[in-house]
Amino acid sequence: MNAHAPPNAPRYRTLDMPGILAFLSGLPDLAARLGGTRAQWTIREVSDGNLNNVFVVDGPRGGVCVKQSLPHVRVDPSWKMPLDRTFFEASYLRDIHPLVPGLTTRCLHFDPDLFVLVVESLAGHAVYRTALMSGVDWPRVVPDIATFVARATFGTSVLSEPFERVFDRHAVYARNQTLQRITLDLVLDDPYHDHPRNHWDDVRLDDVVGRIRTSPAVRRAVDALRLRFLTCPQALLHGDLHTGSIMATATDTRVIDGEFAIYGPIGFDCGMFVGNLVLRRFADFSPDAGRRCVAEIARFWDTFVAEFTRLWAAAHPTPSATSGPCAFFVPDADGASPGRTAFVRAVFDDMVGYCAMEIIRRIIGYAHTADFDVIPTHDARTERRRAALSFACGLLDAHGTQGDVEAAFGALVREDVKGF
Amino acid sequence: MNAHAPPNAPRYRTLDMPGILAFLSGLPDLAARLGGTRAQWTIREVSDGNLNNVFVVDGPRGGVCVKQSLPHVRVDPSWKMPLDRTFFEASYLRDIHPLVPGLTTRCLHFDPDLFVLVVESLAGHAVYRTALMSGVDWPRVVPDIATFVARATFGTSVLSEPFERVFDRHAVYARNQTLQRITLDLVLDDPYHDHPRNHWDDVRLDDVVGRIRTSPAVRRAVDALRLRFLTCPQALLHGDLHTGSIMATATDTRVIDGEFAIYGPIGFDCGMFVGNLVLRRFADFSPDAGRRCVAEIARFWDTFVAEFTRLWAAAHPTPSATSGPCAFFVPDADGASPGRTAFVRAVFDDMVGYCAMEIIRRIIGYAHTADFDVIPTHDARTERRRAALSFACGLLDAHGTQGDVEAAFGALVREDVKGF
Ligand SMILES: Nc1ncnc2c1ncn2[C@@H]1O[C@H](COP(=O)(O)OP(=O)(O)O)[C@@H](O)[C@H]1O
Ligand SMILES: Nc1ncnc2c1ncn2[C@@H]1O[C@H](COP(=O)(O)OP(=O)(O)O)[C@@H](O)[C@H]1O
Ligand SMILES: [Mg+2]
Ligand SMILES: [Mg+2]
């Protein structure tokens, strides 16, 4: 049974469904949360991601979600992978849950031998990407994610905490290298040159791919964003904040799957989320989809800025002459702080850049999204992918110059009048 | 004997001189390096810094330098301090010695129980600050330090190494918090507001101190530099690269005392060194001291840029369309790389900013330098300190706008004509 335990995790074994139930019944707190007896518990597998086994267990009283890492990629057993990713997801939840209690799940248990993470069940929620594809309109999600990013990043940055606490966490997340390597390669590097992991199914994308790869301005922007990802640890990031890492209902939004957590530039989380809103927009033929998408991005950005700024002001309520490690850019008596404005502006530039890189890798890189599957014909899918790639290329070409949502994303509206 | 061992280092004891000799005689490699027998070895204490005990031991064949951290600041036993600083200095030497073998000392031994570090002896070298005050002119030192910074930083950055190796080191140096706290407080924070550790001995400095503290532009620059120190880990820094951390002869230059090592912005090491050249200039009444100082800074900067650029080019010799984690800003066919130019320009801006902050803290902060002691009268010392503070204030006031050495530091030459 233990034949496949990695040498550095001798007690590891992959749990099957009865194994999960036995595991839970050995943990009194979790057993009490489920209620009743083990015979009354039901379990079903919900894994749909690439990496891990995930199960939902329900009892008479409540439910839990159990995630276990495998010594390989779930969908490709030949791609070996260390087990520690659930450790980093558990750490992330412990670090950020106090900051965003209603916007993610609590870590209920982590087993360091089995690499099993147990969190609250969201069985009544849908994965947001799936919900979007089925046509829902849940206006809470976008501002909730903006609030999530603002609180989780501000609260783990040196803007709010002594650097010692932040550096303690640096030391932890600097070890999350397997998944950072994936981000670095799949998101920030492979799509920009020939690589066997890249793929797209229509030669009519070749010219725009060529444009992306040969434009000096785009290459410079891409290199700068890749370098910033590695050398700008502003805050603890989720690291994989696409619409598939969100579970929601019409009124409740939860961020899941924080295994990519790393210190990095705040705009990375913003950009990955916004990039997925844009991908969705290009798969949406309804009139006014562009205008609605721009409005959503503006809602995201405005909510993020308002919350981040509010937290920053609240951390240092009185304008004063006091400098100090946590008192960066204290406003003047009139409330103005050009330093804070510049900080937020840099987050905006990063958001735009990483948004573009997310769009590109989701169309020509290794891991595509399902968004375009709703488009009925191959030709129309290709056309929309071309349009999305061109749009992303434009964002990178003018990177760092756009300044506001309308200027950066306004081209999405012009797509409306093309009359698909 | 072990009464003062800290709880987390039960085998620690502070070694006296016989204790050092006994310690060395128990290490065959070091005993062989010294040669002869223990009875033939001589030992003398050379501690002159604030923090540690340092001894030089000579034998018939060679010499070694032995540094032991104390559970408190050497010059202030009431200021308790963890022992781990020699651990970080040993780690730093192990990380950078292969990159700069002739420009620092090799770590010959580190004892993790006693926190004793043994390095090559530089008994024939002088501390560069002391040598400068005695009037030497050693033209090798400035370009050697530029080469040191270029090689030690490039070689520990993601520009030359897979991020995994860099992040492994992040995890180590993120623990060097005691000394980072000192840098953050003493260098980057205290001087900018009232703090009991600040001191200066003449009310005639009060007005320029007031100007530094109330100028919105200066405050913004200071906050940005402080934030960058904590959130811009471009490379492994020495962290305390003033002229007292350099031992030299007319022909040989060695960097010592790397206990402040941390990942941070490369311009921090540059700026601290250049700041100490500028401090020296303000203590120097000889005609043309300003012009010579500007020429030295230009020599430093030009050598740094040439070496850093050479290393970057050598790491990726052929211009190619290949992106990749270590291939940032690969030049076009004509050799141009605006991305690399921008990177180096940002290092320049950081150098200027940290230079100014080093000048300021050395005049009004906790730890002053001896440079001004050579000035014969109190009035003249005050005058030169005022001039140095004004100069530093000007650097911060125009921070990020100067662009080159002449524009940023040219004011040093104008001091020549004031006719001190
Ligand atoms: N807390 C939860 N409650 C209910 N279902 C969940 C929960 N967390 C994840 N899921 C389901 O499991 C799937 C995979 O989870 P995820 O954390 O994304 O795993 P992976 O890291 O392997 O992608 C999700 O897409 C969702 O359908
Ligand atoms: N390798 C060496 N060889 C000879 N003398 C040294 C050596 N390293 C340091 N010293 C002397 O010891 C002094 C203190 O060393 P340093 O490393 O600066 O200690 P601290 O960290 O306590 O400031 C130096 O100023 C120098 O005079
Ligand atoms: Mg996942
Ligand atoms: Mg020292």
TrEMBL record, chains A, B:
<dbReference type="Pfam" id="PF01636">
    <property type="entry name" value="APH"/>
</dbReference>
<keyword id="KW-0067">ATP-binding</keyword>
<dbReference type="InterPro" id="IPR009212">
    <property type="entry name" value="Methylthioribose_kinase"/>
</dbReference>
<protein>
    <recommendedName>
        <fullName>S-methyl-5-thioribose kinase</fullName>
        <ecNumber>2.7.1.100</ecNumber>
    </recommendedName>
</protein>
<comment type="subunit">
    <text>Homodimer.</text>
</comment>
<dbReference type="InterPro" id="IPR011009">
    <property type="entry name" value="Kinase-like_dom_sf"/>
</dbReference>
<dbReference type="InterPro" id="IPR002575">
    <property type="entry name" value="Aminoglycoside_PTrfase"/>
</dbReference>
<comment type="similarity">
    <text>Belongs to the methylthioribose kinase family.</text>
</comment>
<dbReference type="GO" id="GO:0046522">
    <property type="term" value="F:S-methyl-5-thioribose kinase activity"/>
</dbReference>
<feature type="domain" description="Aminoglycoside phosphotransferase">
    <location>
        <begin position="42"/>
        <end position="304"/>
    </location>
</feature>
<keyword id="KW-0808">Transferase</keyword>
<keyword id="KW-0547">Nucleotide-binding</keyword>
<keyword id="KW-0418">Kinase</keyword>
